Amino acid sequence: METGIDFAREVKQYILDEFLPGENPDDLTDDLPLISGGIIDSIATLKMVLHFEERYGIVLEAHEADKEHLDTIRDIAALLASKAG
């Protein structure tokens, strides 16, 4: 496992590349509601989970793939850090 990963930066870049191409990166803050704000839907969430599981060799449990754990970049980064640690 890589160490010193800036998960928030990687999550933000992934969301910008995959779901918000051409958007201003400054508009995507670490606390912006992604799921509850309608920025990403359930299919996008699943795609994102699968990407990060493969990228970091981690497994997210079904109960972790929900709005409570994945609604903001900060939430996602914290979950990834806890799994990678």
UniProtKB/TrEMBL annotation:
Q: Domain Carrier: where?
A: 6-84
Q: Which PROSITE patterns match?
A: CARRIER
Provide the protein name. Acyl carrier protein
Organism equals Pseudothauera rhizosphaerae
